[in-house]
Design brief:
This protein is an alpha/beta fold. Helices cover 40% and strands 15% of the residues. The protein has 10 helices and 10 strands. The chain has an 8-stranded parallel sheet with strand order 5-4-3-10-9-8-7-6. The chain has a two-stranded antiparallel ribbon with strand order 1-2. A hairpin with a 2-residue loop joins strand 1 (14-16) and strand 2 (19-21). Helix 1 runs parallel beside helix 3 (66-76), helix 5 (125-137) packs parallel to helix 6 (150-158) and helix 8 packs parallel to helix 10.
Length: 274
């Protein structure tokens, strides 16, 4: 009998390099009502990767226990820290910030963000690929935040990125997966690559949809931090991501152009005795 249910994560592990992970939920740490709520949300999410924006952190006047909350999550649920270069607009700036993050947080992991448009916060493909290539040479494991453009994604892989993080929609928009066709194309054309939907997720149903399409994980922040109840919402996303993954593994039925009867209208499917 197939082992099903929400407690079967260990049998469906995935990996980044030589690091094995069971949770497919990556959680951001910005914009929470308090450090305490952040800590509770991380615990409720079950996330094993939490992101922190170094540029924003350096600009903050005191962390109010922020870093301690993050480190506590690392210890209690085996989570890993993923510093990001949010706020950078050039490859040079992002590379410098990544090196600072490695010194500060003692990790080679970096979420690479190089924004090319302040209105949409869309990544700059040229600067992004340049930064990714240099950081890979410098020994970083680069998690590139990118669009759903297939050519750019291929160039990032050629630059040394072990995975890709295409957006579902612009950061913080909550629109969900605005271009399912492009995302499905990515999944089909890059079957052996770890693909993580990053940005634009607004509801647990959006996350479940991404997982049903075969994406490996989902990263989000605002949908949890901006909820009136971040802790409950973090738990809801965790359940939705697990459900979407289970549906993908089970196999979602094909869509039909017309109605298809599910109950036979001829024969005797059941015999009912007296």
């Amino acid at each position: 009998m197939t082992d099903v249910g929400f407690n079967n994560q260990a049998q469906d592990a995935w990996a980044v390099g030589d690091i094995t992970l069971t949770s497919r939920f990556l959680l951001g740490t910005a914009g929470y009502p308090s450090p305490q709520v952040l800590g509770q949300a991380i615990a409720a999410s079950g996330s094993q990767i939490v992101t922190v924006g170094l540029k924003r952190q350096l600009a903050a006047s005191g962390d109010n226990g922020f870093v301690d909350i993050i480190r506590a999550a690392l210890e209690t649920q085996g989570a890993r820290l993923l510093p990001n270069t949010a706020g950078c607009t050039t490859a040079r700036e992002a590379i410098q910030l990544a090196h600072m993050a490695r010194e500060l947080y003692d990790t080679n992991w970096v979420k690479l963000e190089v924004v090319g448009d302040e209105y949409t916060l869309q990544p700059d493909p040229v600067e992004l690929v340049e930064a990714a290539r240099q950081l890979a040479k410098d020994g970083f494991t680069v998690f590139p935040y990118c669009t759903d453009d297939l050519v750019t994604c291929k160039r990032l892989l050629d630059a040394g990125c072990p995975l890709l993080m295409p957006w579902g929609a612009p950061i913080g928009s909550g629109q969900g997966l605005v271009n399912p066709f492009a995302l499905r194309l990515l999944r089909e054309r890059l079957p052996g690559v770890v693909l993580i939907i990053d940005a634009g997720i607004g509801a647990p149903s959006h996350a479940a949809q991404a997982m049903e399409m075969g994406f490996d994980a989902v990263l989000l922040n605002s949908a949890v931090s901006q909820s009136p109840d971040p802790v409950r919402m973090a738990a809801a996303f965790g359940q939705a991501i697990e459900a979407g993954r289970a549906a993908y593994l089970a196999g979602v039925m094909a869509k039909q152009d017309f109605a298809t009867a599910t109950t036979p209208v001829t024969g005797n499917p059941f015999l009912i005795g007296n």
